[in-house]
User: Fold this.
Amino acid sequence: MAIVPKTKKNPIASYLLMRRASLTFAIMVTVSAFGTMGGAESINEEVVVTVDGTNLRFSPSTVTITEGDTVRFFWSGELLAHNAVSEEGLFDSGDPSREVDYLFTFELGTNGTHTYVCEPHEEVGMIGTINVEPAPAGDVPEPETGPETGNLNDSGESWIPFFGLEIVAAIMLFAVIYHFGRTQGLVETRLLIPDTDHQDGG
Assistant:
C-alpha cells in the first residue's frame, strides 16, 4: 500500500464549487424550515372603523370578521369627541376623544355579535355592530394526546418535524465538508497492485 498525493485542482474552481455547495446547502435548509413551519400561522386581517362626524355614525356601522382578526377604531381631527365601548365590556377605547387609534383583536371564543356605542352620542343612534364568525376548523389547533403524538414543547409544537430537519442539515453539512476536503488537494490512500505482466516481461 502506498500513499499517492492527489493532484491539486485549480484553486479558483475549488472556491467556486465550495461556494455553490454552500449556497445550495443554505437554500435547502431555508426551504425545509419554511416548509415545516410555514402554514401553521394564518394571516389575520385588520378592519378599520372610523366615524362620520356629520351624521354621528360609525363608518362602517356593521362589520363582519373572523376570530383572530383585529378591529381598529381610528379617527383624527374630529369636531366632537367620540369613543367605542362594547355593551358587554369586551373592549373600550377609553374616554371620548377627537383623536383615537385603538385596536382590539377578537381571539378564539369571541365569535358572535358584539354591539358597541359612542357614549356621548348613544342617544342619537351612534351604535355599531361587529359580527365575529368562528375561525375555520383548520386554524384551530387540535389537542394532541396519546403516546404516538410525540413530545410537545411549551408552545404546543411537536419536535418531530424539526428533528427530521436536523438530520437533513447534518447530512448536508457532512457532504459539504467532504466535498471541500476533496477539492483542496488532500492526499488520498489507495491500494496499488503490482503490474505482474510488466515485471515478468522486464
